[in-house]
What we know:
This protein has helices at residues 26-45, 52-68, 84-94, 97-106, 109-115, 119-143, 152-181, 185-188, 193-215, 224-233, 235-244, 254-271, 285-292, 294-311, 335-350, 381-397; strands spanning 73-74, 80-81, 252-253, 275-282, 317-322, 325-331, 354-355, 362-363, 367-374, 403-404. It is of the alpha+beta class. The chain has two domains: 23-238, Orthogonal Bundle (Arp2/3 complex 21 kDa subunit ARPC3); 252-404, 2-Layer Sandwich (Alpha-Beta Plaits).
Amino acid sequence: xxxxxxxxxxxxxxxxxxxxxxxxxxxxxxxxxxxxxxxxxxxxxxxxxxxxxxxxxxxxxxxxxxxxxxxxxxxxxxxxxxxxxxxxxxxxxxxxxxxxxxxxxxxxxxxxxxxxxxxxxxxxxxxxxxxxxxxxxxxxxxxxxxxxxxxxxxxxxxxxxxxxxxxxxxxxxxxxxxxxxxxxxxxxxxxxxxxxxxxxxxxxxxxxxxxxxxxxxxxxxxxxxxxxxxxxxxxxxxxxxxxxxxxxxxxxxxxxxxxxxxxxxxxxxxxxxxxxxxxxxxxxxxxxxxxxxxxxxxxxxxxxxxxxxxxxxxxxxxxxxxxxxxxxxxxxxxxxxxxxxxxxxxxxxxxxxxxxxxxxxxxxxxxxxxxxxxxxxxxxxxxxxxxxxxxxxxxxxxxxxxxxx
Length: 405
């Protein structure tokens, strides 16, 4: 993620946590903010004669980063992308420490004005950027050279500063996401190749900005076209996520499910391993829509999606198949295991009180589930889905709110 400001603010695909900063995250939050305060104090204490050119660069970088915050790209997985990190890294590599502190705080003002995130989110993000930027600055200082010096070691120092910024930024946020929202590093995607490489490329772009400023400030306008192309490229993860995600529930859509099912069946056939499929259907959703309105029906669909997410394993795949139907792919799962999972899902939906907010009150729903297992019930995708669908209708005929094979 090229920027990480909303990762705490947006709900995950798990049940929404309580508002505010969870108790278990507060010690870490305090440590990061306290360390950032100490670092800012030490940076302010470093004697420095600020030149007009440095103030001009400071204003340019803050303006660029602030503008970038207005062009964020959100994905359904709650990742956030924009090019502001490039400006932050450029400032970290060439500005004096006290201006780096001001830059990290000032660039988030546009973000605050636009989104008005809770105070603790903004404070953590400023602290995170400040620590990463000062660490990158010190990495270059320890190399004993400047990023624009005419020597190979200068490039190595600049690359080291970029690596330090990206690494520290991701480590701090990954820990906060785990403590505050229970999202592991794998779930957040912070250390995926796409996330790390995107941020490192933007950091390298920041290094380019810093070198150009030192060599010829009038050459900076030539970076605007490639920067705009990078911004457009950042929409690719969003389009990729939207192409395989159901917007209403946050689950995968039927197209992605069919691709994954075909792939898993091929693997299971090759290694002679079991695979199970669940086909689930909400009972009498039309009655809920007629009694409480279609928004209540949407709330029920989202609640079922949350129940599926909470009851399934990390490697299971749940999808909205269409309307009020859901499908679940259970790799390495025989019929007995699939029945146990299906029963947990059925019970979880039946016992859940679903809020009708913004209307008052709650509603309850039930779900019927059909189970089919490879190779007993089919050896290809169509056969397995048909068997699960047949089992689903058997569960409906049995009185609904049941599981059948």
